[in-house]
Amino acid sequence: MIKIHTALFAILMLISAIKMDNIQEQEGTLSQKLEQAPVKHQLSYIDQDEKHTVIPAFSEEKHQPKVKMLSTSTEEKASKPKPKKKETAKPASSRNQSHYSNEEMDLLSRLVHAEAKGESYAGKKAVASVVLNRVEHRSFPDSVRGVIYQRNAFQPVSNGSINDKADQDSVKAVKQVVKEDDRTTKAIYFYNPKTATDNWIRSRKIVERIGRHVFAV
């Protein structure tokens, strides 16, 4: 019986010694981990009395954004506005009679004859001038045929009178306007106020009146 008690006591003492060794070993491991902890955890600490966090000054410098300094010439370039692109208008035609085909001259003469029948010689020149002004204007076709046959541009094209042979005065007026560049008007529109029904054409700025026609831009 005494031997059993002695054996149990020895076992208990052995267990206690093992537990003590484990505790000491764990404490040693914990202290090693604390010593090897990253430096960033030691850079800030908490003041228990004032209850605020103190952060080293070099961390503030690290997060400051870098400001790129501009030279004087760079600032001047940045302050100068970019020039607006100029609109390019259709260049004015410098063509004379030698640059117009016989077909173009004949077509223009027939239009003048149909549009200015019964008008004065100046009135015929004015109608021819309108056609050539349109050829040179960026809003219209750039050929005599293109201008005359533009949709709804001239009534003689619609009613067929454009096909009638031109009278001598109309032919002469066209030659003078083309050859001598003798434009009677700068207008790009003309109409007869007694027969015109389009309110839009009546809204255009009038530049002159010749015979029964009003010339406008």
Automatic annotation (TrEMBL):
Residues 118-216 form the Cell wall hydrolase SleB domain. This is Cell wall hydrolase. It comes from the Bacteria. InterPro entries: Cell_wall_hydrolase_SleB (IPR011105), SleB_dom1 (IPR042047). Keywords: Hydrolase. Residues 56-102 are annotated as: Disordered. Signal peptide: none annotated. One of its GO terms (molecular function) is hydrolase activity.
